[in-house]
Write a structure and sequence with these properties.
Layout: E1 2-6, H1 9-19, E2 25-28, H2 37-43, E3 46-50, H3 53-60, E4 72-76, E5 82-87, H4 94-105, E6 108-110, H5 114-117, H6 123-130, E7 133-134, H7 140-148, E8 154-157, E9 175-178, E10 189-193, E11 197-203, H8 209-222, E12 230-236, H9 243-252, E13 256-259, H10 261-265, H11 273-279, H12 285-292, E14 295-303, E15 306-312
Parallel strand pairs: 1-2, 1-3, 3-4, 5-6, 8-9, 9-10, 11-12, 12-13
Antiparallel strand pairs: 4-5, 7-10, 11-15, 14-15
Domain Cobalamin biosynthesis central region: 122-194
Organism: Thermobrachium celere DSM 8682
Protein name: Cobalamin biosynthesis protein CbiG
């Protein structure tokens, strides 16, 4: 949802012009915004003020959390001359929204983030577009500053992605990783996690979410993989009632897929006699991982009544 707050009759005309261009727009005037401001900031993906920048700053200040949580905030003067990206320019999408709104209003976009000014492909914007996780967010500023200053950076990629840096150097003092593997680097570094790992899970009845998560984590550590690169998880349809699987889905924030007996048995894999006698399929974790897609990189990891298989999308 985009919320637009205006204070004058001039602002009202601009607000209604913008409403025609965007889906799910809520309009607030000087009489209606005040009692709703907390909910506006909490529930909006973007907040547009048609006002002075000072008014916008004072109104949003107490609601700010972090660049990873705050909505995009832009400001438009009520003459529709300038559109200013005020808050969450990259991850929140304010810079992109600023350009779009400026184009609609035939106004001048005002963007002050340094990477944009110097035409640098910002790491956080790249990660957002590609659906990657920024693992150690505290290092984002380090890498961004180095790029702005044209310093050398060691760029390490384990997946095929279109991202490059003109001053990359293996001997650099800092590093940028785009990888699904564990990173052991004593240099200051930033890690981007591509969502490329598909996980098949077999488990006994009644396994707890904590046990399942611990086994999954152990399997990944032993195989030099990062949980943050999991794209989706899957199991046999007879396991739909297992609360641990649904709990894992929520904890990882990834899709959970269930495959039928026929789908699983179409996958050629080694038969587990116990599993076959119990539920009529040759195996669960491996075929489920392969059905999700990719190359099998962890055939089977077994512990505490749980079996984990992992495929890599390439």
């Amino acid at each position: 949802m985009i919320s637009i707050i205006y204070f004058t009759s001039y602002g009202e005309k601009i607000a209604y012009r913008l409403k025609d261009y965007f889906n799910e727009v809520c309009l607030y005037n000087k009489s209606t915004y005040r009692d709703n401001l907390k909910e506006i900031f909490k529930n909006s993906r973007a907040v547009i003020f048609i006002s002075s920048t000072g008014i916008a700053v004072r109104l949003v200040a107490k609601f700010l959390k972090s660049k990873y949580e705050d909505p995009a905030v832009i400001v438009i003067d009520d003459g529709a001359n300038f559109v200013i990206s005020l808050l969450s320019g990259h991850i929140g999408g304010a810079n992109e929204l600023c350009k779009n709104v400026a184009n609609i209003l035939k106004a001048t976009p005002v963007i002050t983030t340094s990477t944009d000014i110097h035409n640098i492909d910002s790491v956080d914007v790249f990660a957002k577009k590609k659906g990657m996780v920024i693992e150690n967010k505290e290092s984002l500023k380090l890498i961004s500053s180095a790029m702005i200053e044209e310093e050398k950076i060691d760029l390490i990629k384990d997946v095929e992605v279109e991202y490059d840096y003109i001053n990359k150097c293996k001997d650099a003092d800092i590093a940028l990783y785009i990888t699904y593997k564990m990173v052991k680097d004593k240099r200051p570094h930033l890690i981007l996690r591509p969502k490329v790992l598909n996980v098949g899970i077999g488990l006994k009845r009644g396994i707890s979410i904590d046990t399942l998560y611990d086994v999954l984590n152990t399997a990944f550590i032993k195989n030099d993989l990062s949980i943050n690169s999991i794209k989706q998880i899957a199991s046999f349809e007879l396991k739909k009632e297992e609360e641990a699987l649904w709990g894992l889905k929520e904890r990882l924030k990834v899709p959970l897929i269930f495959f039928t007996k026929d789908e699983i048995n179409r996958i050629d894999c080694e038969r587990d006699d116990f599993v076959y006698k119990s539920v009529g399929v040759n195996a669960v974790s491996e075929p489920c991982a392969r059905l999700l897609g990719g190359r099998l990189i962890v055939k089977k990891f077994k512990k505490d009544g749980i079996t984990i298989s992992v495929c890599l999308e390439e």
